[in-house]
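lol so apparently i was supposed to do this last week
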Amino acid sequence: MSIPAHVAIIMDGNGRWAKQRGLPRVAGHRAGVEALRKTVRNAGEMGIAWLTVYAFSSENWSRPKSEVTDLMGLLKIFIRRDLAELHRNGVRVRVIGERDGLEVEIRTLLEEAEALTHQNRNLNLVIAFNYGGRDEIARAAKRIGEAVAAGTVDPAEISAETFANFLDTAGFPDPDLVIRTSGEMRLSNFLPWQTAYSEFLFLPCYWPDFGKADLEDAVRAYASRDRRYGGAPARDVAL
Ligand code: IPE
Ligand code: IPE
Ligand code: MG
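anyway here it is w/ IPE bound
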C-alpha cells in the first residue's frame, strides 16, 4: 500500500466539539492539543515522513482577544511540555508562517524547538503558526524582488521551481494528502501553492475526536486514489 510521504492536516472543529459538550471553546482547543500529540505519535509509527499541521492562521487574529491568548498559551505549553519527548522520538520540528508580530517568548520557543531537533530524521513535524498562504506567497515575492534588486537573481530565471525556494516550505516535499476535519470543505488559506496536486479528504469528525483509526482510514483512502498530475489514467497507459 502506498503510504503518503507527506500528510497535511487542517485541525478544525475544536470550538464546535466544546460547544457540543457545553464547554468553553478553550476546552476544545486543549482537547485538540491532545489529538495532535496522538497524531504525531501515530504518524511516526505508520511511517509517514512529513506531517504538517495548521495550528494558527494569519486570519485567526480576528478572534476574540481571550481566545487568541488561549491559543498562544497552548502553543507555549505544547512546546514546553512535549519538546523533550519529540526530540527523544527523533522528530524534527519546523515552523512555517510569519514570525514578525509574534510575542518574543513564542518566537524564542519556536527557534529553540527547531534548533534542538534539527538533526532528527524520523518524522518532520511542520507547524503552520501565524501562517497564511497568500501572505507566504507575497513574502516570497518580496524576497525575490529584493534579490533581483541586489543583482543575485536574474528575473529571466524565475520559474515555479525557483519561486518555491523562496517560500517558507523551501526544500519540503509537497503534501500528498490534505485532511480537514469538522466537515468544512475549504482550504482557509492553507498551503495554496503546495497543494496544487494534493489529494483531499474532508472528514465530518471534529479535530479532538480524530484518532488512530481515522488516520489509518485516511491513508487507506489515499492509497485508492489515482494521481494523474495532468497525465492519462495509469490503467489506460498500461493497456
Ligand atoms: C480549530 O478549531 C482550531 C483553530 C482554528 C486554532 P476552531 O477553533 O476553528 O473550531 P470551530 O471551527 O469553531 O469549531
Ligand atoms: C483554519 O480553520 C485554521 C486552523 C485550523 C488553524 P478556521 O476555523 O480558522 O477556518 P474558517 O474560518 O472556518 O475558514
Ligand atoms: Mg474552525
